[in-house]
Amino acid sequence: MADDQATLLDFWASPFGMRVRIALAEKDVKYEYSEQDMRTKSALLLQMNPVHKKIPVLVHNGKPVCESLIIVQYIDEVWKDKAPLLPSDPYQRAQSKFWADFVDKKIHELCRKIWAKKGEDLEAAKKDFIDCLKLLEGELGDKPYFGGETIGYVDIAFVPFYVWFHAYETVGNFNVEAECPKLIAYCKRCLQKESVSKSLPDPQKVYNFAVKLRKRFGID
């Protein structure tokens, strides 16, 4: 698909944008990267995603695709000749979508609570967060990746949150690796892949950004 033109509207610290970056890297898709200011949203972003007005948006041959997991599925279907991300088996495919949805509805939401809560509410969010990570750790089992021997849909859905763990751990005063050592070893294994390492920012940079964000919103 040499004539394809792809542009990614994104923000560097977004784990949802990181998903799309990993998927594009896995497929070796050439694209233009357009960094967005989420405080002053560009005319292009508002044009391409008028419903949610959020990143990421993949603009492929002039047509926008929105929402990170939908974009990853789209990438898998359009550039299907390399590195399949979703299983071909219908049941395995359904399971992959289930766990990716779990990441969004449980992991992401609990991360937001750790971010914003204090006192007993923070302690409850931390416990729920670790419990959910342990469920993921159990699903991973002894496989190198959730997708088996190669990185796949669930891996792409989850691993971007890893670079935010340092910020959440510092805010919440806890240690994920102490509770879920196999899951953290898995995250580090994912980072050994070029498609992942070049798509994820440094956790310290993310933490510095998180500190500024908390001050801006008056959380600290």
UniProtKB/TrEMBL annotation:
InterPro entries noted in UniProt: Glutathione-S-Trfase_C-like, Glutathione-S-Trfase_C_sf, Glutathione_S-Trfase, Glutathione_S-Trfase_N, GST_C_Tau, Omega/Tau-like, Thioredoxin-like_sf
Family statement: Belongs to the GST superfamily.
Domain of life: Eukaryota
Catalysed conversion reaction: RX + glutathione = an S-substituted glutathione + a halide anion + H(+)
CC annotations in GO: cytosol
Keyword Signal found: no
GST N-terminal domain span: 4-83
Keywords: Cytoplasm, Transferase
Enzyme Commission number(s): 2.5.1.18
Broad class of where this protein is predominantly found: cytoplasm
Domain GST C-terminal: from-to ranges: 89-209
Biological role: Is involved in the conjugation of reduced glutathione to a wide number of exogenous and endogenous hydrophobic electrophiles.
Compartment annotation: Cytoplasm, Cytosol
Gene Ontology annotations of biological process type: glutathione metabolic process
Name the UniProt record assigns to this protein: Glutathione S-transferase
A GO MF term: glutathione transferase activity
Organism (species): Dovyalis caffra
